[in-house]
Amino acid sequence: MDSLSARPSPHISCVGFTTANAEAAADFFTGTLGFSRGQSLVVEAGPYAELIGLPGSRLKLLQLHIGAETLELTEVLNLGSGLRPGRPIPADSRSSDLWFQHICIVVSDLEAASAKARQAIAEGSLVGVSTAPQTLPEWNTAAAGIQAFKFRDPEGHNLELLQFPPDKGDARWHVSPGDPSPFLGIDHSAVSVADTPMSCRFYDDLLGLRLGGDGLNSGPTQDGLDGLQDTRVRITGHRCPGGPGVECLNYQPPNNGRPRPADQGAQDHAHWQIRLRVADLDRIAAAAEASAGQPLHGGVIQLGEQAAIVGADRALQLADPDGHQLQILGS
Predict the structure, then answer these.
(1) 5 in a domain, yes or no?
(2) I need a labelling partner for 283 at 20 to 30 A (CA). Which of 183, 188, 221, 232 fits?
(3) Residue 224: inside a domain, yes or no?
(4) Is residue 91 part of a domain?
(5) Residue 298 — φ and ψ, nearest 5°?
(6) b/e string for 277-306 if b means 16 or more Cβ within 10 A?
(7) Same-domain status, 182 and 46
(8) Has residue 153 been placed in a domain?
């Protein structure tokens, strides 16, 4: 399902989350946010289900595309024996809670791109996070002029729409697309973290991403963007040689967040995963715990006849220091 990539490693081949209804979620993303449908696959248990910690389960994987990036929806059709049912995302979730994760969708015109979502929020069918689209202030040199708006999909998954000014963002976000749609692609997935230096050791030293921007956002604009009060958040980017990256959000008092439930699993709708292709899977598996990572579900798994699902023979489900999961692919 996920073809082998010729891009330099490490490379994020997709970001995904668990959903109660993949078809309904796909309708939302295609109808509201400019995604297009890709392949859909039913996984009949086997090593892939073991990899994500749902042995014996029957799964539906549905891929959506936007620009050069892929979002993968996972629906649990039948749980394996003895596994508890999935739970919805807590209704009182905040951006600072340590189970928080979102994708940042880059747009060319924030006003137009957010129109359908803002209308749905006004009608009560979606939940907004931001009070309104925000423009980050001039004093914040690293982020000045960036426009953003945050909200939740119908199941509560967090999303961000973002428009870069001409002097910021990858060059690819400033090339006029052939398609008149304002939706361009996914720049990063953001995760809430408790300890920035520890997260840097995990994402940069262990996984091989490179440190991007690192700054502190605060003030009324950040409050309006995150739906919080007295917000202070350290934002640290981690980039691959190309394509999407990972952004770590360290919210500071009074908004430091709640820890993730210890038993959160891939059947829960708060579960996200980043699929990362690497050149040194065995080194990462061996060194993970020294970088505060946690190999899950038996470590490196041979995918055998299910290798085509991810485009790799072997994979490792790996939790970062705060429990956010990555699916590490290797040969």
Answers:
(1) no
(2) 188
(3) yes
(4) no
(5) 95, 5
(6) bbeebeebbeebeebbbebbbeebbebeeb
(7) no
(8) yes
Q: Is residue 300 within 8 Å of 281, Cβ to Cβ?
A: yes
Residues 113, 234 within the same domain: yes
> What SS3 string covers the chain?
CCCCCCCCCCEEEEEEEECCCHHHHHHHHHHHHCCEEEEEEEEECHHHHHHCCCCCCEEEEEEEEECCEEEEEEEEEECCCCCCCCCCCCCCCCCCCCCCEEEEEEECCHHHHCHHHHHHHHHCCCCECCCCCEECCCCCCCCCCCEEEEEECCCCCEEEEEECCCCCCCHHHHCCCCCCCCEEEEEEEEEECCCHHHHHHHHHHHCCCEEEEEEEEECHHHHHHHCCCCCEEEEEEEECCCCCEEEEEEECCCCCCCCCCCCCCCCCCCCEEEEEECCCHHHHHHHCHHHCCEEEEEEEEECHHHHHHHCCCEEEEEECCCCCEEEEEEC
Minimal CA–CA distance to 216: which of 248, 254, 180, 170? Answer: 248
CATH code at 319?
A: 3.10.180.10
* Predicted pLDDT of residue 4: 45
Residues of the chain with pLDDT under 70: 2-7, 177
Q: 148 and 28, same structural domain?
A: no
How far apart CA 294 and CA 6 sit, in angstroms, is: 28
pLDDT at residue 176, as a whole number: 76
Residues in the chain: 331
Alpha-carbon separation of residue 219 from 129, 228, 237 (angstroms): 16, 10, 20
Contact 154, 24 (CB under 8 A): yes
Q: Which two tokens stand for residue 150?
A: 């945050």
Give me the pLDDT at residue 2, please. Answer: 63
Residue ranges making up the domain that contains 220: 101-251
Q: How far apart are CA 251 and CA 269, in angstroms?
A: 23
